[in-house]
Design goal:
Low-confidence stretches: none
Radius of gyration: 11 Å
Strand order of the largest sheet: 2-1-3-4
Number of helices: 3
Mean pLDDT: 97
Structural class: alpha+beta
Order of helices and strands: EHEHEEH
Shape: globular
Helix content: 40-55%
Strand content: 15-25%
Distance between the termini: 12 Å
């Protein structure tokens, strides 16, 4: 599973990455993380605001920090 955090590296982006890593650990699944900070790469996705969470190239959330339960649901999905 490939998980991307889209954002400049601000506190919200880092919090999203932390929550996602905790959810992955809770589920015991194998995942590769990539923090995308390059604006051109971020703009390639259909998002208007960061932070954004992308799981296996599907945008799951943007512009907010989802709850850990939401993230767990997307990872199971």
């Amino acid at each position: 599973m490939l998980i991307k955090i889209l954002g400049s590296g601000c506190a919200k982006c880092n919090r999203l990455e932390q929550l996602t890593r905790e959810a992955v650990g809770e589920l015991g699944i194998a995942a590769t993380f990539e923090h995308v900070r390059d604006m051109d790469a971020i703009m390639a996705y259909p998002i208007m605001t960061t932070p954004a969470l992308v799981i296996d190239e599907a945008v799951k959330c943007s512009g907010r920090i989802p709850s850990r339960d939401e993230i767990v649901g997307w990872l199971r999905g």
